[in-house]
């Protein structure tokens, strides 16, 4: 045995037994904790790699390129990118598994599986007893020394016993200290080798990634942008001549063939009818609108050229069809539009005759036709086809053929169409305002009967100038606006209960519920009848009302004010309990060096307990603790905590814990915390009643919650 292997022995053998044991125990405890923390780090590192693999796998399930033909010659680039995903998944998945199997698990098990560690644990109890007895004898020696000569004999006796204990420590401590050093050397060797193995695993994974990138680069480098552009141009190459000829063919096909021959245009009408028609044409001058100025300028140039066509008049008389236009607005305009449509269809034939024939219709500088000087003031025989009757046109006011020097006609052209109202809506509106008309007793004044012309002008013009909305419909809408829907009173309820319980040896010494009811009112601000609701509680409950409500009957309460819409507390109550929602039975066993705890607990209520937590204090100077399930030990506060989460079953469960202490501990109470959602342990109910003399508020939402405030079991 070399000096290097006896460093623990040479350093700690001459110390007081308690100091030597405390030093070795503290180091061993920190070593176990360090291994656990390193194992947690590598576990999280493996989980990160696993999450990366899952994220890559999500990419394989997505469809990114909708049209691979758009890649052209760069298709291999996308294929290698897509293939990289599966390869990366395999690399990092293998890397994650190896971290868990080769690093994390060996770190957690290295101390437990070590034989020297188990021997140290078994030897520690006996040596701790020797150290404790040695300190007790030392305390007695100091006590007897203070007693003076009377205690000298006892001092000598205690000194001999102390020397025996120290000799016992000298005989048994070396093996213990050597085992401690062996355990310390072993766990550092394991930690060092495992970290080195982790770096080798990481290096291997990175090398595989590097090889993958080299392969991808070797495929992408040869791709040429010029080849891709040349590939595109070769697929879309065409002769210029072919494209030009195709363009002319397409545009020639758009121009329709003339549907009327030249012979039909020449012989369709007699010269007498042609003369009679031109003698009765009326020039209509329309002022162009500012909104259509650009469009009018473009169309005027086309109308000027078309108005000189020699076949214009012949096309008008050879094809007389009725035109569906707005009746009574204009007379000569439909025939001019009809001529323009035929002129466009036979444009090619008319251009050949345009240079030979003289223009029959003279057009001014603005494109309007000028009537011939020899026209008559009579309408042609075909005037019976007009939309206006002959008798109407012979009146003095609006006729085109009056004896005035400057005959005129007014034409109002509107862009909006007349929207007819629904007869059913008008009937409903009339029925709603009928009572207003019955009180009208004044007889209407005598009015002149309207003639036929006045009736027609009303139908054609006055209706178009009126707004589309009906006065009766407007009055009906105003009535609806004056009678808005009245909202019903409603309340949203929030009930919170807190449990205070103290139990000893399985018997309830004190248990109660303190509850608070809060509501939020929505609805009308005023009501002719009281707005009420019912709160049902056990008869043993003690209640206290706030200023917001008052009691009407046994369980009926009225809201005093309907103005506020904020959440307000209306009631607090208190109720004694005979049983507890969570039964807890703690059992302690405290020895000189160890304290053991067994907790049995069981749910005894409906619903699910959430956020269940047990907390207890541990006395006796705790050095180390073991617990099933694991707990959180705070050495600074000498306290241990168990977070049990959700408890949704009624079966009995256990908590086992063992604490290593420097002195004998004492039993401590168990404090519990938990939440109960959507349930009330007092069975409080809020609903509507059946009294027709009051207005019952509608209960929309009831939020229920129970919390354990001070729940202590000793």
UniProtKB/TrEMBL annotation:
Alphabetical UniProt keywords: Coiled coil, Endocytosis
Region of interest: Disordered: 287-310
MHD domain span: 488-714
TM helices/strands, residue ranges: none
GO biological process per UniProt: endocytosis; septin cytoskeleton organization
Domain of life of the source: Eukaryota
Bias type Polar residues, positions: 293-310
Keyword Coiled coil set for record: yes
KW Coiled coil (keyword) present: yes
One GO cellular component term: cell division site
SMART domains: FCH
Name of the featured protein: MHD domain-containing protein
Originating species: Rhizopus microsporus ATCC 52813
């Amino acid at each position: 045995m070399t000096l290097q292997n006896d460093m623990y022995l040479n350093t700690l053998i001459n110390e007081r037994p308690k100091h030597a044991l405390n030093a070795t125990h503290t180091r061993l405890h920190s070593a176990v904790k360090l291994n656990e923390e390193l194992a947690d780090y590598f576990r999280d590192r493996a989980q990160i790699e696993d999450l990366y693999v899952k994220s890559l796998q999500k990419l394989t399930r997505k469809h990114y390129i909708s049209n691979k033909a758009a890649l052209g010659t760069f298709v291999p680039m996308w294929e290698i990118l897509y293939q990289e995903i599966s390869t990366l998944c395999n690399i990092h998945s293998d890397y994650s598994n190896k971290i868990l199997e080769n690093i994390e698990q060996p770190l957690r098990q290295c101390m437990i599986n070590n034989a020297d560690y188990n021997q140290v644990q078994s030897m520690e109890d006996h040596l701790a007893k020797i150290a404790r007895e040695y300190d007790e004898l030392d305390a007695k020696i100091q006590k007897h020394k203070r007693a003076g000569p009377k205690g000298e004999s006892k001092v000598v006796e205690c000194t001999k016993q102390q020397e025996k204990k120290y000799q016992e420590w000298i005989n048994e401590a070396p093996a213990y200290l050597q085992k401690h050093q062996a355990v310390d050397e072993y766990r550092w060797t394991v930690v060092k080798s495992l970290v080195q193995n982790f770096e080798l695993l990481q290096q291997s994974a990175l090398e595989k990634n590097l090889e993958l990138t080299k392969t991808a680069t070797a495929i992408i480098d040869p791709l040429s942008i010029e080849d891709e552009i040349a590939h595109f141009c070769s697929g879309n190459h065409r002769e210029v001549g072919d494209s030009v000829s195709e363009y002319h063919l397409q545009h020639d096909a758009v121009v329709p063939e003339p549907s009327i021959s030249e012979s039909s245009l020449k012989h369709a009408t007699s010269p007498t009818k042609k003369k009679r028609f031109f003698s009765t044409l009326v020039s209509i001058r329309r002022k162009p609108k500012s909104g259509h100025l650009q469009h009018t300028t473009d169309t005027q140039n086309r109308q000027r050229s078309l108005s000189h066509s020699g076949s214009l008049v012949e096309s008008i008389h050879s094809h007389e069809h009725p035109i569906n236009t707005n009746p009574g607005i204009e007379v000569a305009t439909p025939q001019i539009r009809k001529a323009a449509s035929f002129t466009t269809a036979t444009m090619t034939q008319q251009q050949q005759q345009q240079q030979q024939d003289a223009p029959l219709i003279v057009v001014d500088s603005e494109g309007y036709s000028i009537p011939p000087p020899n026209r008559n003031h009579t309408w042609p025989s075909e005037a019976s086809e007009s939309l206006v009757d002959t008798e109407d046109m012979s009146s003095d006011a609006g006729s085109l053929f009056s004896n005035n020097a400057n005959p005129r006609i007014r034409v109002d052209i509107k862009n909006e169409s007349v929207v007819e109202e629904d007869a059913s809506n008008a009937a409903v509106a009339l029925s709603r305002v009928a009572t207003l008309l019955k009180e009208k007793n004044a007889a209407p004044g005598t009015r002149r009967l309207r003639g036929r012309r006045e009736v027609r002008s009303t139908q054609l013009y006055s209706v178009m100038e009126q707004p589309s909305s009906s006065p009766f419909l407007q009055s009906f809408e105003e009535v609806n606006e004056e009678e808005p829907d009245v909202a019903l009173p409603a309340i949203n309820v929030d009930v919170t209960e807190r449990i205070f319980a103290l139990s000893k040896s399985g018997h309830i010494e004190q248990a109660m519920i303190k509850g608070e009811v809060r509501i939020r009112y929505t609805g009308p601000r005023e009501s002719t009848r009281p707005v009420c609701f019912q709160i049902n509680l056990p008869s043993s409950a003690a209640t206290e009302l706030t200023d917001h409500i008052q009691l009407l009957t046994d369980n009926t309460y009225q809201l005093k004010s309907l103005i506020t819409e904020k959440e307000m507390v209306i009631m607090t109550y208190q109720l004694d309990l005979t049983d507890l929602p969570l039964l807890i039975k703690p059992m302690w066993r405290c020895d000189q060096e160890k304290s053991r705890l067994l907790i049995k607990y069981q749910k005894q209520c409906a619903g699910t307990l959430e956020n269940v937590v047990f907390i207890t204090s541990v006395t006796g100077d705790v050095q180390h603790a073991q617990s099933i399930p694991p707990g959180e030990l705070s050495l600074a506060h000498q306290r241990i905590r168990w977070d049990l989460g959700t408890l949704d079953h009624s079966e009995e469960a256990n908590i086992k814990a063992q604490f290593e202490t420097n002195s004998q501990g004492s039993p401590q109470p168990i404090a519990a915390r938990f939440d109960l959602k959507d349930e009330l342990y007092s069975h409080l109910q809020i609903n509507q009643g059946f009294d027709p003399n009051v207005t019952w508020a509608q209960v929309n939402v009831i939020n229920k919650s129970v919390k354990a405030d001070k729940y202590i079991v000793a």
